[in-house]
Design a protein that fits this description.
Helix content: 55-70%
CATH class of the largest domain: Mainly Alpha
Number of domains: 2
Structural class: alpha+beta
Oligomer: single chain
CATH superfamily of the largest domain: Cation efflux protein transmembrane domain
CATH architecture of the largest domain: Up-down Bundle
Shape: elongated
CATH topology of the largest domain: Alpha-lytic protease prodomain-like
Number of strands: 4
Largest sheet: 4 strands, mixed
Order of helices and strands: HHHHHHHEEHEE
């Protein structure tokens, strides 16, 4: 990504985070004022979005930092550490909200329905503005940007739920609607927490990124000109946007090794977005690792 594009995306994230903070403050204060648990749980969900925005912004910033002697891959993996900590914290918050929702279902507490409606509507409007800021000009090719937009749209959906509960309470006085929506939003938080923990665990264990299938990668390598066989293939992620690959590739004797290597690297970069590759070309199977793909010879 060019330096100008990075600056533009950084500015969008900065504005989106400022707007999201305004939602968070309004909903925390509004929860205290209205007595709404649904608004408090939505504030927790907004915090998840704010963290996602901050993490995406940080990932873009840190990707521009040079690697050092001690950290040869740079500081990309800090994203994993932060995501793991956030996933555990949000899981705990969602559990606390669920317990409180259960208590309020047994003993409903009064909620100021009209005030809740106004604050939740403010949250919905600002979330839609944030989504517009992030997606304007249609520049959403960046994975971090797409992820952030999905987070914001998810929070907009949660705000709609709070608005529905506020309308019910305002028009009918049925206070359990607030607790029921709290359970729904807690489920969204649990889902977000689970994804963070799952993705973090996969990266920590150096697993194959979820967006990539090893068999498809092996097939693309094995069908490159001059390739006979692929073995000892490893694919892992340093962070969500930095994928690394190493492999042994058996080639035909006398083939143009540099042409084959260039073709393989171009396929990996253009099809799978894998920039960091270590490929060892061999004239025969060295016995190391498992054979994962072999070209069908006539």
């Amino acid at each position: 990504m060019k330096a100008h594009e990075i600056r533009v995306i950084e500015q969008r994230f900065a504005l989106a985070m400022i707007l999201t903070v305004s939602i968070l403050v309004a909903e925390l204060a509004g929860s205290w004022w209205t007595g709404s648990l649904a608004l408090l749980s939505d504030a927790a969900h907004v915090f998840l979005d704010l963290f996602a925005l901050g993490l995406s912004w940080f990932a873009i910033r840190i990707s521009a930092l040079p690697a050092s002697e001690r950290y040869s891959y740079g500081f990309h993996r800090f994203e994993v550490v932060a995501a793991l900590a956030n996933g555990l914290t949000l899981g705990f918050v969602a559990l606390v909200v669920l317990i409180e929702a259960y208590r309020r279902l047994l003993e409903p507490e009064p909620v100021k329905g009209l005030d809740l409606l106004l604050i939740a509507s403010f949250g919905l409007i600002v979330n839609l503005i944030v989504a517009f800021v992030l997606s304007r000009d249609g520049h959403v090719e960046d994975l971090n940007l797409r992820s952030a937009i999905l987070h914001v749209l998810g929070d907009a959906a949660a705000s709609l739920g709070v608005i529905a509960a506020a309308l019910v309470i305002w028009r009918t006085g049925w206070y359990p609607a607030d607790s029921i929506i709290s359970v729904f939003i807690s489920a969204l938080i649990f889902a977000g927490s689970y994804r963070l923990l799952k993705d973090s665990f996969r990266l920590i264990m150096e697993g194959v990124p979820e967006c990539i299938r090893s068999d498809e990668v092996a097939n693309q390598i094995s069908t490159a000109p001059g390739v006979i066989q692929v073995h000892d293939l490893h694919i892992w992620g340093v962070c969500s946007s930095n994928i690394v690959l190493s492999a042994h590739v058996v080639v035909f004797p006398g083939s143009d090794h540099q042409r084959t290597l260039n073709e393989i690297r171009e396929r990996l970069r253009s099809i799978f977005g894998i920039e960091h590759t270590t490929i060892q070309l061999e004239n025969e199977y060295c016995g190391q690792g498992t054979v994962v793909a072999r070209k069908q010879l006539n």
